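Q: I'm writing up a methods section and want to include an example of the input and output format. Could you take the sequence below and give the corresponding predicted structure tokens, formatted cleanly so I can copy it straight into the document?
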Amino acid sequence: MPDLTKTAADAAVQDSVPAVDPAPEPKAKAEKARSLWGDAWQDLRRRPIFIVSSVMILILLTITAFPGWFTSANPTLGDLQNHFLQKPQLSKVFSPEWLGYDAQGRSVYARMIHGTRASVLVGLGTATVVTLFGGLVGMLAGYFGGVIDSILSRLTDVFFGIPFLLGAMVVLNSFTDRTVLIVIGALAFLGWTQTARVMRGSVITIKQADYVQAAKALGAGTRRILFRHILPNAVAPVIVVATISLGVYISAEATLSYLGLGLSGVSWGTDISAGGNQIRVAQHIMLFPSIMLSLTVLSFIMLGEAVRNALDPKTR
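A: Here is the clean output for your methods example:
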């Protein structure tokens, strides 16, 4: 017969012992919310077009910064006696005779390498000046509105009505020694209008947002609102325009040099123009600078397209 007294006592002891809850499972760490730029970077890393264009642009920037790493030949030194219209020797990679010589006995490869520096510097310098000046004009016009918007918009329309290449030709024709800075100034003088229009439209949209109205209600100054709240959120389309326009400015510089109104020194456009006179007997003079120019413009356009798709949520 079971001991009922002992069984009841054991049950009482068990009831008096507090129940121990099982160890709580560790909560999954909340994923940190990413900003627009974080999302864009994650999207860009998965796009082959961005990787390919970035590698090509990195190579171009390296050539621009250190042309001596790629050739030791003098791009302006000619030897008519030994190298007049000498054909390319493709087996001698990276040597002065690799891509042949032009009608003045100058190395086509050396001129192509040093021409990269001139063209890329013009493109980067023009894009920087246009973005800063045009962005400032568009931001002021879009934020203040009223009379300021009317004046700046009409000024933008006046410059927008001037043909870009024709206006640049007129400006550059007044200079005898056309350096990189002069060409940048001429292209930026007429090229800032599109950036101003894009920035103005973006600012008009952003300034109506709730966080901008809240900042005004809390007494934030105009400078703080513009540079802390509006500019970081309105600059995305401007960056896209600037990236794509880089290729346009490089192409414009080559066109002006082809017409004899571009850089006074080594330039792809100058070599393409000189190669046109010898195209029947020496096609390599025009061929290789043309390929380099096309690849450079294509690289920046591809990068701009990738950035545009990454920053536009509608394309995802």
